[in-house]
Amino acid sequence: MTYGAIDKNKLPENLQKMSAAERKQYIDGKLAQRRKTAQAIQSLQKARETYIEKHRAQTAAPTFGEAVLRQVKTQAKTKGFSFGK
After folding, report:
1. Per-residue pLDDT at 7
2. DSSP helix/strand/coil, 21
3. Contacts of 15 (CB under 8 A, 6+ apart)
4. Under 8 Å CB-to-CB from 11, ≥6 apart: which residues?
5. How does pLDDT run along the chain (85 residues), one tens digit per residue?
6. Can you say how many angstroms the Cα of residue 58 is from the centroid of all Cα atoms in its chain?
7. Residue 23 CB: number of other CB atoms within 10 A?
8. Which of 23, 27, 31, 57 can pair with 18 through a Cys bridge, CB separation 3.0 to 4.6 Å?
9. Nearest-angstrom CA–CA distance, 32 and 30
10. What is the rounded end-to-end Cα distance, in angstroms, of the chain?
11. Which DSSP helix (H) or strand (E) runs through 25?
């Protein structure tokens, strides 16, 4: 989609008041800001995953999900169900 293809009446009021050049500059600025924010989120997500893996390795206790899964499998085996790996 190009900047000129957008119907001006469908834009928010603050964008309708801008000239085409101002609108393009505003939109480009917002896109750059969103890309920067997305990169920051990805960086923080990687740091979070690293932190979790580091601390999970130090903890001997199973997570809640692991404990539930182990209990479900134990109960299922008593009822005759079997599981692969």
Report:
1. 83
2. helix
3. 23, 26
4. 23
5. 677 777 888 889 998 899 889 999 999 999 999 999 999 999 999 999 999 888 877 777 778 888 899 999 999 999 988 877 6
6. 26
7. 19
8. 23
9. 5
10. 50
11. helix 20-58
